Amino acid sequence: MSRTIYKSLPDLALARTKRDDGKTIREPLVVPDIVKEFGEGRKFFIKTFGCQGNVRDEEILAGYLEAAGMVRTENEEEAGLALINTCAVRENAEEKVYGEIGKFKANRKKDPTFFLGVCGCMMQEEGVAKKIKASYPYVNLIFGTHNIPNLLNLIGESLARKKDLVDVISFPGDIVENLPSTRLDSYKAFVNITYGCDKFCTYCIVPYTRGRERSRAKEDVLKECKSLVEEGYQEITLLGQNVNSYGKDFHDGTSFATILREVAALGIPRLRFMTSHPWDFTDEMIDVIAATPNIMPCIHLPVQSGSTSMLRLMGRRYTRESYLELVKKIRTKIPGCAITTDIIVGFPNETEEQFEDTLSLCEEVQYDAAFTFIYSPRKGTPAAKMEDNVSDATKHERFDRLLKVVEAGVMSHSQAMLGHVYDVLVDGPSKKDEAVLSGYTETGKLVNFPGPKYLKGCIVPVRIVEDHAFSMIGALVEDPVLSLARRAGKALENEPVAKTYLAAKKAFEESKVVSSLRAEVEKAQKEVARLSAVGDDVAFAKAKKAYRSSMDAYRNDPVVQNYEASKEEMEALLQEAADILR
Ligand code: SAH
Ligand code: SF4
Ligand code: F3S
């Protein structure tokens, strides 16, 4: 009897199909008893390949596992459960996955209850699940990108039936809300706004692995972002394969510009987004970015190729000229805006002339950063069927030539930063040296500078003292203690007690009833003062009584009472903070 149950396998033809019956699902999280028992105290390890979308999925996977009582470990050897979250975008990403699966054979040998799952985009490709099961029989669970919300049930089913499971559905998918999540970072967060992609660029596997494009309800996005702001997050990156498409499926005028504006208004210090397609980048989006200081002036605008004929073959929907026009518009309306890109070298039959168009475009744009890739055929995409007359040697030679041109552009931007001061959001000590911090400027430049570890998560001013191509060396220009104090003050503003106080104060200051009661008190007070000089005891006593009753009316007003009570709580909180500092 086979050890593996194939519940479903991916089907690329189905993945291509556009369906309009997607729904938003909001179900409470239920942990099956068998998973609770299995999970209690078990250490889990997750290895993620690929893009930010996959990193966000890792946080959700971790949220499920923690709900089942498991605890994260960064040491794969001590893991009692491991998940490998894969990427399918290029062949080399896939090769790394096989090596990673191989590593876990040792865990199984040591611990017969060790549980291994493989998930992510690569599982959505036809043939992959069977290949993995054939070569790595110790894999217990294979599931796809649309099966993530079912993770605990799948683990439970595998344990209960004592079988390995494969469940990779290909239908385009719904939107699932109320997902558990354990964020990897405490001050920078990714928030999904769209899932999937409908663009079907001819080389790209993503629409097949992630399904049809769908937008999360605006209220759900805003709720998630609001709680991040309240938790003191410093940066939110709105995620989507093509964020520009946000809201088009609602057919009610909601657009990416709408969500950008509304998330920015929640007060997050830094708002970023990725990725934007150059085809539907609207003027309204540019205007919102230009007018909103907490939207970072940094746009990832993948060009892929500088040749119009090549762009047509890639299915990119814009021309070299319209792309350059867009870059010009962005730079005019958002001065100092960084522009970064992705480029593919060696698409089938790329001519020298087409490649040179890419070089000249890079010379003209001078990107702040560029991710360059050698074309990798993806089975099931239209480009994979094209015959190719370009040799690997030529592709590599072009790749090296492109890198040189890209580097010159990047250098021109870094040189211009020398001597100037930039706000840097500190990620923490750099990998190489504990005493050196690293972080990013608003335009996304990596800066390393000496400083204390406690600045992690603070935004600090740094002067650039040395420029390297892809990172800078800087020096702090403010006493780090002051930077920390500023952050502490901001964090205090987000305390529930402080928020209640600020709301009560606002209501107090804006209440018409309160201001008329106060006017009554003042009037009565003046009358008492006037009569005290006249010597008419009866009238004086009457005025005093009127004053007292106006005071009572003022003090008993609910808005006034609320304000006074919240003020007391706020004072106690500040006193507590002062005691700690002392
Ligand atoms: N949605 C984003 C990102 C897609 S994947 C976008 O449209 O820009 C990230 C990058 O991988 C792409 O921009 C592209 O440059 C590269 N890429 C995608 N498919 C590829 C392939 N088959 N071979 C090489 N690079 C590829
Ligand atoms: Fe792939 Fe194109 Fe969609 Fe980007 S826009 S994910 S490159 S199909
Ligand atoms: Fe890779 Fe899937 Fe992202 S293919 S790039 S992990 S959407």
Major β-sheet annotation: 7 strands, parallel
The dominant shape is globular
Q: How many helical elements?
A: 20
Q: Going across the major beta sheet, what is the strand order?
A: 1-8-7-6-5-3-4
Give the fraction of residues assigned to helices: 40-55%
Characterise this structure.
By secondary structure, the protein is an alpha/beta fold. 45% of the residues lie in helices and 18% in strands. It has 20 helices and 22 strands. It has a seven-stranded parallel sheet with strand order 1-8-7-6-5-3-4, with helices on both faces. Strand 16, helix 14 (352-365) and strand 17 (369-374) form a beta-alpha-beta unit. Helix 14 runs parallel beside helix 15 (392-417) and helix 18 runs antiparallel to helix 19. The radius of gyration is 30 Å and the shape is globular. The model has no long low-confidence stretch (mean pLDDT 94). Bound molecules: S-adenosyl-L-homocysteine, iron/sulfur cluster (SF4) and FE3-S4 cluster.
Topology:
Blueprint: E1 4-8, H1 12-16, E2 24-25, H2 33-39, E3 43-48, H3 52-67, E4 71-72, E5 81-86, H4 91-103, H5 105-110, E6 115-120, H6 128-135, E7 141-143, H7 151-161, E8 164-167, E9 175-176, E10 188-192, E11 194-195, H8 206-210, E12 214-215, H9 218-230, E13 235-239, H10 256-264, E14 270-274, H11 283-291, E15 298-300, H12 308-314, H13 320-333, E16 338-345, H14 352-365, E17 369-374, H15 392-417, E18 421-429, E19 436-441, E20 446-450, E21 459-467, E22 472-476, H16 480-493, H17 496-510, H18 512-534, H19 537-556, H20 558-581
Parallel strand pairs: 1-8, 2-9, 3-4, 3-5, 5-6, 6-7, 7-8, 10-13, 13-14, 15-16, 16-17, 20-22
Antiparallel strand pairs: 11-12, 18-19, 18-21, 19-20, 21-22
Helix pairs in contact: 10-11, 14-15, 17-20, 18-19
The structure holds S-adenosyl-L-homocysteine, iron/sulfur cluster (SF4) and FE3-S4 cluster (F3S).
